[in-house]
Design brief:
It is a single chain. This protein is an alpha/beta fold. The chain folds into two domains: 12-71, no CATH class; 91-230, Glutaredoxin (3-Layer(aba) Sandwich), CATH 3.40.30.10. The chain has helices at 11-39, 46-71, 127-141, 160-171, 187-192, 218-230, and strands spanning 91-93, 99-101, 109-117, 147-155, 176-179, 200-203, 209-213. A hairpin with a 5-residue loop joins β1 (91-93) and β2 (99-101). α3 crosses α6 (218-230). The longest helix has 29 residues, at 11-39.
């Protein structure tokens, strides 16, 4: 039998085959490029590198701020200072907004109490007991005799007004109560904390330092105040 002649492909069929070959060639080329790229170490664009660097700095900065906040939840350390011979005059503001100066209480018996406060509202010994004793003393003298009580707190956290307000409620503080660190310094504490945190200082009517105490009961403190009133 004579061999059959191959049917001649049409122009459209030849075009279709050509397109298929081109497509396969492109796919093979793309696969080869992807394989070569996978073998090479990836290089980041400069913009991405700088962005990542600043992101790392931001994370470490935030962590440092968090660490600072965590450490400030504890009351600040108040070291003992030298005993004053004459009162250190100062001006501060009660947490209700009333501005006052120590000098304005000349002629009265003045009691100054030093109180370290943490951002969580925590206070160190002997302050819980000191505040309880001062409440008893205030019940006896505040508004009834020329006696002024002032608790000078040291609170470094940003939310200190709310923290002090809660302490005022918890311990029934009805006397003057302000934050030495409101102006960013510890000047009052550095002068009056002769026994460290919890110090109580008495100033007589002649505006002289009388005594300072680390811990003291309300009965002993009331006796001392009565002596100064009678002097």
């Amino acid at each position: 039998m004579p061999e059959k002649k191959k049917k001649k492909k049409s122009w459209k069929e030849r075009q279709r085959e050509r397109q298929i070959r081109q497509q396969k060639a492109q796919e093979a080329y793309q696969i080869q490029r992807e394989r070569e790229a996978a073998k090479k170490p990836r290089k980041w664009p400069k913009g991405k590198i700088l962005g990542s660097f600043f992101l790392i700095l931001l994370v470490f900065g935030a962590y440092g701020a968090w660490q600072s906040t965590q450490s400030s939840t504890e009351p600040p350390t108040i070291n003992p200072t030298n005993t004053l011979e004459t009162p250190y005059e100062f001006t501060m503001r009660d947490i209700n907004g009333t501005q006052f100066s120590l000098n304005s209480f000349r002629g009265k018996v003045i009691l100054i109490h030093i109180l370290g406060v943490g951002c969580s509202g925590g206070i160190n010994k002997p302050n819980p007991n000191q505040l309880t004793q001062l409440k008893t003393v205030c019940n006896s003298f505040c508004g009834k005799a020329p006696v002024t009580l002032i608790t000078v707190a040291v609170a470094t956290c940003q939310d200190w007004p709310n923290v002090l307000a809660q302490i005022r409620i918890t311990y029934g503080i009805s006397w003057l109560f302000g934050n030495d660190y409101e102006d960013g310094t510890f000047d009052i504490v550095q002068k009056y904390a002769t026994h460290g945190d919890g110090t109580i200082v008495l100033i007589d009517k002649a505006f002289h330092i009388s005594d300072s105490y680390g811990t003291i009961t309300a009965s002993v403190l009331s006796s001392k105040i009565n002596q100064l009133l009678e002097a």
